[in-house]
Amino acid sequence: MKILMIGGTGLLGSAAAQIFVDRKNEIKTLSLPPLPQGAPLPPEMEIVFQDANKLTDDEMLDLMNGYDIFVFATGVDERVEFPAPVYDAYYKYNIAPLERYLPLAKKAGMKGAVVCGSYFSWLAKERPDMNLCAKHPYIRSRIEQEKVCEKYADKNFGVGVLELPYIFGTQPGRKPVWTILIEQLQRFEKMPFTMYPAGGTAMLTVRQVGEAMVGAAEQAYAAAEKGEAGFRAYGISCVNMTWREFLKIVYRAMDGIPDRKIVDVPKWTFQAFGLVMRKDYAKRNVDSGIDPVGLADIMGMNLFIPTDDCKELGCTSDDIEKAIFDSIKLSKIAFEGKAELVGMKGE
Q: pLDDT grade, residue 37 (50/70/90)?
């Protein structure tokens, strides 16, 4: 296959790029500078330093011609802060590009696309009684993103959305997203225990995300060849872990504490903290993609996803504890300002 990716130098895109190359595929990526210093990018991957959002339709079409699969490994998640209304930012970076790129990919004769989405979409569809789209702009945006993908899929053009959960692993030179967790845990630094919700989450490693991306591309290509393609949302999880299990690993990595005491937080306590966060956001003119009060419902549940889809996509076993450990170690270094790292950005 010939792959055109947006975001191939990022944490997830680069992992997929290496696997594409290992499986004898040709790959080109559109990416924004700077490259993270020391990032292990496959030398076989052609890198075009260009903001895809600033290309004309004709310019994008020229890049797509002759390629088989389009991979959208970019966008922003709920941890990137924006002024109100935050939904506009999610539309700009996660939805509008696909409204433009997917019909262009079909016009160029490509056979399919793979899009990195969010496991909040999986939860919203699994639990409609929670009314998550009404409460959380970010979750609504991810559902709308999937609707766009489904709109352009047909029997000759397959679109797969990976509903990605917590991801662990590092890319040399790139700031991990987990610095926010390091900051949150500082408030318990002088206490003999840490207070946290009693739920848990699905998760996987960066390498497993890369395998899922490649597997989804291979499935879309094969189905389109038979005229049997269409839309597919994959619930992604290789490991399901409680917050308590997770935080014990975090503390070993962060402070060398072998068995930190974790105390379950009642839902009302988390909601009260959410009210404080609402005031902080308002003070800083920041709109939250995930309402901090409503987040209590999500954090207090075991947001566990069956591993079947990942097995189908060819994800192999990996050391999740090491991936968490490495992510937290680098996050602490970043939090303490001991390294210059490329961070997340909206564009």
A: confident
Q: Is the dihedral of CA 45, 54, 137, 270 positive or negative?
A: positive
Closest CA to 19 of 185, 199, 213: 213
Amino acid at 330: L
Long-range contacts of 144-149 (CB under 8 A, 24+ apart): 144/91, 144/95, 145/94, 145/95, 145/98, 145/115, 145/117, 145/121, 146/117, 146/121, 146/233, 148/95, 148/98, 148/99, 148/102, 149/98, 149/102, 149/113, 149/115, 149/231
97-118 pLDDT per residue, tens: 999 999 999 999 999 999 999 9
Strand 239-242 to strand 200-205: parallel, antiparallel, or no bridges (unpaired)? antiparallel
Rounded Cα gap, residues 161 and 29, in angstroms: 19
For residue 11, which phi and psi values (nearest 5 degrees)?
A: -60, -50
**Whole-model pTM?**
0.95
Question: Can you say whether the dihedral through the CA atoms of 126, 131, 135, 140 is positive or negative?
Answer: positive
Return the pLDDT at 177. 86
> Closest Cα partner for 167 from 143, 214, 201?
201
Tokens 């890369």: give the residue: 210
Contacts of 147 (CB under 8 A, 6+ apart): none
